[in-house]
Amino acid sequence: MRAVWSAARAAVRRRRLQTFVIWLVTLTSTGAIVVALGLVDSASAPFDRAFAKERGPHVVAAFDPAKVSDARLRQAARGPGVEAVAGPFAQVAVDLPAEGNRELTGAVTIVGRPGPGGPVDRVDLWAGRWATRPGEVVLNRQPDWSAGALGERIRLPSGTVLTIVGYGSEMSRTADAWVAPAQAAALRPTATQMLFRFTDASSQNRLRATLSTVTSGLPEDALTASQTYLTLKEQIGATARAYAQYLMAFGVLGVVVAVLIVANVVSGAVISGFRHIGILKALGFTPGQVVAVYLTMVSVPAVVGCALGTLVGNLLARPFLRFVFTGPDAGLLHRSVGIAPWVNAVALLGMPAVCLAAALVPASRAHRLSAARAISAGTAPRAGRALGLQRALAGTRLPRSVSLGVGLPFARPGRSGLTLAAVVLGVATVTFATGLATTMTRFGESGRDYDVTVYVGRVSHGTVVEAEHGDRRLDAMLRALPGAGGVTARGDVEAHIAGSVQPVMFEGRRGDLPRLGDVLTGGRWNHGRGEVTASSAFLRRHGLRVGDRFVVEKGERRERVTVVGETMETDGRLLVGDWSTFTALAAGERPIAYHVKLRDGADPAAYARAARALDPGLDPEVNGANGGAETIIGSATLLTAMLAVVAALGVFNTVLLDTRDRRRVLGMLKSIGMTPRQVTVMTVTSMGVLGVIGSLAGVPLGIAGYDLVVPRMADAVDIVLPAAMTDVWRAGGLALPALSGLAIALLGAYLPARGAARLTVAEALHNE
Questions:
Q1: How far is residue 134 CA from its own chain's centroid?
Q2: 54 phi and psi, to 5 degrees?
Q3: Above 90 in pLDDT, residue 55?
Q4: Which has the closest alpha carbon to 690: 658, 660, 662, 667?
């Protein structure tokens, strides 16, 4: 093995280009795979670990206390399929005003619960103690929340005052706050909460079927709302799954390109090193040792590249994972989000194994050669396999350098096939990335119907500065500023769907731009009271469709609404209605922001400065770019550029090997009058043929990849992309992918072609 290592180390130093190509392609592929697999794992694993630790409920159900008693619910919970149950707990929906309540405001669900433990939904009481007496409350807060507000008081609209005695956290969000059961009964409960764990929780259908069995003996309409843990899991991991889709595509492409290039490099090293193989065998190397030399030559840069790629992937993954987990309750998972050990194991062991497997087939050729045959094969000139084709091309009107170049790839069909496959994948990557970038650009620009958002209320040195002027006055003042084209007032309030424990964000709009950049994907826009448009994510998570009706509650106010339209919005809590519906739920609420559309040519920054001068309580903000779309476009562009460079390096390696194999032929061509320029044209043309073929095959492959990945990305975040965003394959959009194959081939071929052109006749014909 000492001799094998010495020979392999010398081969690594001698073949610096091939070593660099293997190192770069394994580093790139491994880094992408680590991030992609980390996202796939983190889309579910952290949730599963945290959920299992606290024995979270598979189903949170709310029942009407006027239709079913607690005793009937306890009896029903003993039905088949129920593993464990907690409850019944009294549930109260209240609307807490901001005045006088710093710790808890808006639409709030309060549940009466005797303690933090139990068989289902164990609350982590991380500060203070549990509420055991009337007048005490425990808030549901994440552990990184400051616990300095213990002892603060919360005043309910009924006049009841609750003192904060503790902070707890549980990721299922079964309540915003907990009180003692006696206190909950005094608050006039609006629902009864039951928390179920079922023996079979493998799918939504199984959960719904078991819940239906449990409630089958209860009065009709006793069950007012329910939510499964799978809905919450989908919500928290949605963004991670969306990013994982396209990163996994790049990772797989990188692995395949790595296999092709490693096989090409080793095959070329074996073919061009026949004489070296013969000398090694003549010196006493066994066939197995010769194969080991070539496998070691590949494994050294592959292992180094995989190790660095794993390190880079881990460094990039943690901030990236924290970025994608930005939805409601995602902060509960930040402590457990990271790259799992199995991901690093796959990267560190799997990628070198793939490289060695790719190298084994061409290296086995060195195993079969005898010493005499290897030495003679390395010194004797070889007849070209493309002579017949080149003779046929010579009869055309093509310049001789071009006709010779067109025939060259057919002289080494195996090597040309591997190079062509790398070019095809490079073109497919460019095509996929072009379509993805176009869609994400259109997605990011879909919210640009307004230019400036003027928020009401400004934070200065930790203090909120309130606006001095009233709603209508501010509206009129903003319309009167130079450049204003249209103004829309927007108000937001937290509310609940009747019986549900999960809050919704009800948004009311008034003014000139009721859409505010929303893209309608179904139904129509809301026009009057009682009509709402909802995001695709909202409808999916609540099992609703366009045309369905339900009741929205805010405190003691109730409004029956009808879904008339579906919008492309990623917020799964968002409902949008007109101002009359909004004020029916939240009388006296003021707009929290005004969205301003400017006239053509107006300067958004100048308008923002003018708006800021109107009132010290205004905080204008120029509409910026979509951060998520920019992240996807930027990372896809970087990965595409890296894979295109790697594919070009594969072409570079092929041309270099071809030039070395054909040194004697080049010498003879130069001796009969071929100029350096003609040598360059011949060599570049040989790869240009592969580039053209690669474009013809790679563009459809990239389009197929786009059609596979982009819909999965949209499904992961529960949105429907309209045709205007996915109709990206026009003639102009295909120009860059169509030319990318030729560009990759010419870029990789030019430098070694120039090197071949500079060879003198004596250097080319010299065999020793």
A1: 47
A2: -95, 10
A3: no
A4: 658
Spatial separation of the C-alpha atoms in residues 528 and 530, rounded to whole Å: 6
- Does this model's pTM top 0.90? My answer is no
| DSSP three-state, residue 19 | helix
Residue 462 is encoded by which pair of tokens? 């930790």
Give me the pLDDT at residue 351, please. Answer: 78
CA distance 717 to 239: 6
Region 106-129 average pLDDT: 87
Region 66-73 average pLDDT: 90
CA separation for the pair 292, 307 (Å, rounded): 21
**Helical pair 2-14 and 287-324, crossing angle rounded to 10 deg:** 60
Please, what is the angle between helix 287-324 and helix 16-42, to 10°?
40
Q: What is the pLDDT of residue 330?
A: 46
The residue written with tokens 């003679």 in the block is 376
CB 29 within 8 A of CB 251: yes
In sequence order, which residues have a C-beta less than 8 Å from that of residue 231 and are 6 or more positions away?
204, 541
Residue 317 tokens, joined: 């993954």
* Helical pair 204-214 and 229-272, crossing angle rounded to 10 deg: 160
Give the distance, in angstroms, between the CA of residue 61 and the centroid of all CA atoms in the same chain: 32
Give me 557's structure tokens.
């106010």
449 pLDDT exceeds 90? no
Q: Can you tell me which residue has the tokens 């088949």?
A: 80
State the Cα–Cα distance between residues 404 and 674, nearest whole angstrom: 12
Task: Kindly indicate the confidence band of residue 513, based on its pLDDT and cuts at 50, 70 and 90.
Answer: low
pLDDT recorded at residue 390: 62
Whole-angstrom CA distances from 335 to 78, 322, 325, 468, 614 are 36, 10, 11, 42, 44
DSSP 8-state code for residue 411 = G
CA–CA gap between residue 293 and residue 203 (Å, rounded):
52
The answer, yes or no, to whether the previous bond of 189 is cis (omega within 30 of 0) is: no
Amino acid symbol at 236: I
| d(C-alpha 108, C-alpha 123), whole Å | 18
- Tell me the residue ranges of DSSP E strands in 648-718: none
CA 410, 415, 417, 419 dihedral sign is negative
* CB-CB contact of 6 with 289 (8 Å): no
Six-digit token pair at 519? 């893209």
Q: Is 721 helix (H, G, I), strand (E, B) or coil?
A: coil
Instruction: For 81-135, give the DSSP string.
Output: TEEEEEEEEEEEEEEE-STT-SS--EEEEEEE-S-S-SSS---EEEEE----STT
Radius of gyration of the chain (CA): 34
Cα dihedral 526/531/536/541 (nearest 10):
170
Task: Write down the pLDDT at residue 373.
Answer: 62
Determine contact, residues 246/629, Cβ cutoff 8 Å: no
The mean per-residue pLDDT over the stretch 648-674 comes to 73
Cβ neighbours for 253, distance < 8 A, ≥ 6 positions apart: 425, 428, 429, 643
Q: How far apart are CA 28 and CA 593, in angstroms?
A: 45
Contact 761, 671 (CB under 8 A): yes
pLDDT bin (cut points 50, 70, 90) of residue 111 is: very high
**Containing H/E element for 622?**
strand 618-622
Which among 82, 80, 79, 93 has a CA at the least distance from the CA of 59? 82
pLDDT, tens digit, 9 for 90 and up, residues 683-711: 888 888 888 888 888 889 888 888 888 88
Main-chain dihedrals φ then ψ at residue 505, nearest 5 degrees: -105, 110
